[in-house]
Amino acid sequence: MKAYRVEGQFRKKKRKHTFTKEILGENEEQVREKILSIVGSNHRVKRSDISIAAVTEISPEDVQNPVVKYQLEG
């Protein structure tokens, strides 16, 4: 598994909200799918209202999320 940092935004009630999330995945396509699922579920927005600006692979040293860091080490 590799660590990825995903940046994007979603629309809700005519406002734009930006987000940055770190997540584990096998490839970029799987990470995009997970992010659409997580953001849509947590914020009750449709996939069409979520836009992903960047998906970048990050090294284990650059991971800031403690859960992702623990999963990488284990």
3D architecture notes:
- The protein has 74 residues and is an alpha+beta fold.
- The protein has a single domain (2-73), classed as Ubiquitin-like (UB roll) (Roll).
- Helix content is 32%, strand content 42%.
- The chain has helices spanning 28-43, 66-73, and strands at 2-12, 15-25, 50-58.
- Strands 2-1-3 form a three-stranded antiparallel beta sheet.
- The longest helix is centred in the middle third of the chain and has 16 residues, at 28-43.
- It is elongated, with a radius of gyration of 13 Å.
- The N and C termini lie close together (11 Å).
Keywords:
single chain, 74 residues, alpha+beta, Ubiquitin-like (UB roll), three-stranded antiparallel β-sheet, 2 helices, 3 strands, elongated
Topology:
Blueprint: E1 2-12, E2 15-25, H1 28-43, E3 50-58, H2 66-73
Antiparallel strand pairs: 1-2, 1-3
Offer a concise description of the structure.
With 74 residues, the chain is α+β, with helices and mostly antiparallel strands. It is 32% helix and 42% strand.
Helix fraction, binned, reads 25-40%
Characterize the biggest β-sheet: 3 strands, antiparallel
What are the low-pLDDT stretches, counting only 5+ consecutive residues below 50?
none
Give the CATH level 1 class. Answer: Alpha Beta
- Determine the N-to-C terminus distance: 11 Å
Average of pLDDT: 97
Neighbour order of strands in the largest sheet: 2-1-3
CATH architecture: Roll
CATH topology: Ubiquitin-like (UB roll)
Strand content: 35-45%
Please give the domain count. 1
From the alpha-carbon coordinates, what is the Rg to the nearest angstrom?
13 Å
Specify the overall morphology: elongated
Order of helices and strands: EEHEH
> What would you call the structural class?
alpha+beta
What's the tally of helices? 2
